[in-house]
Amino acid sequence: MAISPFKIFRTVVFALFLRELKTRFGNSKFGVLWVFLEPMIQIVLMLLIFNFMRSSMMPQVPFALFYVTGMLPFFIFKNIVTGLMSSLDANRALFAYKPVKPIDTYITRTVLEVTIYLTVFTFIIIIMGWFFGVDITVNHPLEALGALGLIIIMGVGVGIAVSMLAHAFSITKVIVNAVITVLYLVSGVMFPIWLIPAEYLSVLQYNPVLHVIEIFRESFFSYYPTIEGITIGYPIFFTLIVLYISLWFYYRNRIALGTST
Predict the structure, then answer these.
(1) Are 164 and 245 in contact (CB under 8 A)?
(2) At what angle do helices 63-85 and 29-49 cross, to 10 degrees?
(3) What pLDDT, in 10s, does the model give residues 178-196?
(4) What are phi and psi of 71, to 5 degrees?
(5) Residue among 67, 78, 80, 4 nearest 40 (CA)
């Protein structure tokens, strides 16, 4: 009896997922521990540095939750992009096996990064709510899920594009890592964007990640300030264009990308 293509796909992705888990965490428990410690250390440091924001700049928004709700979508986007960018090189030997395709590695790394960061995020906000009394209620859950879904798809589109560029030009990884560092600074992860003068904010709003982060935050806070120019339409349009272009180029170059040599 012939095995269905979907069953082959599911088996391949599951096997790749287990392989990625072992590669990511190794055989040490410290690998898993570090996944939780890294974002928690960042949050503690940011709380110490920007503690004054609690009173004057964000009187109705707890800064800890403000930072976490900016960190989650940004780090999901960042890790999907960087994970997909290096997935071809990391799994090249496996492409000698006919069932394994480059798209399988893209899907596997996306699922892995989303799973890790949603788990970390859930763990952190439970600690904030249980031990520190922070109101972690999601006022608009559908809006939050929509924003997360959008940032995931955006990360996949950008990640596939840069993975093909990295396949052709090794310098791509250096450039992408530098761009992501800049994005971290200008996407409103660390600071409220309503403090930025209008003439500068209008430039920053060309960054689609900033829009998604702000929309995700709005779903948590009842009294979150409304920022003129923040819209869901722009990041959706950007995502659809990037995803279409990246998938088109992937389809055209899928055989070359899957060569094991």
Answers:
(1) no
(2) 130
(3) 999 999 999 998 888 888 8
(4) -65, -45
(5) 67
User: With the C-alpha atoms ordered 30, 34, 128, 112, is the resulting torsion angle positive or negative?
Assistant: negative
Q: 46-61 as b/e, with b when 16 or more CB fall inside 10 Å?
A: beeebeebeeeebeeb
Rounded CA-CA distance 22/109 in Å is: 13
Number of other CB atoms surrounding residue 32 within 10 Å: 14
Instruction: Give the residue from 42, 169, 158 showing the smallest Cα distance to 110.
Output: 158
Sign of CA dihedral 76, 260, 174, 211: negative
Question: Looking up tokens 């806070």, which residue turns up?
Answer: 221
Within 10 angstroms of residue 119's Cβ, the number of other Cβ atoms is 12
pTM of the predicted structure, to 2 decimals:
0.89
CA atoms within 13 A on the CB side of 98: 1
Which parts of the chain sit beneath pLDDT 70? Answer: 1-3, 26-32, 35-36, 39-40, 42-44, 46-61, 259-261
Sequence letter at residue 241:
I
End-to-end alpha carbon distance in the chain: 33
Q: How far is CA 119 from the centre of its chain?
A: 13
Q: Is the dihedral of CA 92, 38, 173, 211 positive or negative?
A: positive
